[in-house]
Amino acid sequence: MPASSHFRSVHLRRSVLSVPAINSRALEKVHGLNCDAVIFDLEDSVAPEKKAEARDNLNRFFAETPLAGREAVIRINALSSDFGAQDMETVLALRPQAVLLPKVDSPDDILAVSDLLDENDAPESLRIWAMVETPRAILNIAAIAETGRTEGPRLDCFVVGLNDLRKETGVLPLPGRTYLVPWLMQVVLAARAYGLDVIDSVCNDFRDLDAYDGECGQGRAMGFDGKMLIHPAQIDAANRHFGPAEAAIAEAEAIIAAFADPAAAGLGVVNLDGRMVERLHLEEAERLMQKTRLIAERKAAR
Ligand code: COA
Ligand code: MG
């Protein structure tokens, strides 16, 4: 399996909305929402005595009104918890695009689930996403990314969870996420080293859209592929910030055209209006255009 980021397949994961599986009204709403992916949550947003009812809701949702054209992800409770085994049965029956594992600490947490999926003949298309939300996950992040890639190739995506991480570490929720940034960057770096996507944490304050907009811009600047969301009001800004900007699309088209010119055949580097452009920029440009096409397809389908 190639580890380089160049081989990362392109997915649209700008806006990844969490929906509590217990909330039928919210489940009904997702069809009309313009988010790229939906996380159906069986974990923190569902009270212990409601877990069975939440699973029933998902069974009904997937049978009667399944999501079309977008990734459906089920967040389960930890395998070691009272609910994990039954949640996994639900995942195996419903076959979403991915299962999201909470509170991953080490590579073994990924391998346990990837073994379970293999033993139950789950299709290769059923991927693993991992919440990065514990101090140990941050300490072990490179090993988690690497093991997921090399031993159990289902690992596809990290999702940072700052609510748990703040709780566990005592770091305060300051503007700019000052003391969290080094950890966030470490997660982005590990994801890139092993060709995974990486999604920024939720912003709890869904009424303060100005602060949220700033956090989306920061997440994009840090290299995240998208943001986990808790409320429909957060979708548009995530799509805007994590989607390619007009200027970036024009630039990508110019780079692709420059290298397509017969005069550039065999060249590793060309002059684009007085700036050096290398073939590595071409790969980036092609990824960006692929994303742009996916966005256009998504728009056309709505
Ligand atoms: N997905 C889909 N629809 C949602 C939604 C979500 N995550 N959050 C809110 N909505 C819907 C509401 O049902 C409501 O619909 P209605 O007007 O038809 O009744 C509408 O959006 C407006 O919601 P609002 O009244 O502003 O908020 P609320 O009080 O209903 O819900 C929360 C607020 C925080 C409880 C809710 O957004 C939520 O549960 N978010 C997800 C939490 C979660 O998944 N946590 C775990 C991951 S961190
Ligand atoms: Mg959590």
Overview of this structure, please?
This protein is of the alpha/beta class and 302 residues long. 46% of the residues lie in helices and 16% in strands. It has twelve helices and ten strands. The strands form two sheets. The chain has an eight-stranded parallel barrel with strand order 1-2-3-4-5-6-7-8, surrounded by five helices. A two-stranded antiparallel sheet has the order 9-10. Helix 2 links the parallel strand 2 and strand 3. The two termini are 35 Å apart. The relative contact order is 0.12. The N terminus is likely disordered. Bound molecules: coenzyme A and magnesium ion (MG). The site of coenzyme A has 15 residues, from strand 1 and helix 1.
Short description:
The chain is an alpha/beta fold and 302 residues long. The protein contains twelve helices and ten strands.
Write out the distinct hetero groups bound to the structure: coenzyme A, magnesium ion
Please estimate the helix content: 40-55%
- E-strand count: 10
- The chain-level structural class is alpha/beta
Enumerate the spans where pLDDT stays under 50 for 5 or more consecutive residues: 1-6
- H-E order: EHEHEHEHEHHEHHEHEHHEEH
The residue-averaged pLDDT reads 94
Give me the number of helical elements: 12
Strand order of the largest sheet: 1-2-3-4-5-6-7-8
Dominant shape: globular
Proportion of beta-strand residues: 15-25%
Largest sheet: 8 strands, parallel, barrel
Rg value? 20 Å
> What separation lies between the terminal Cα atoms?
35 Å
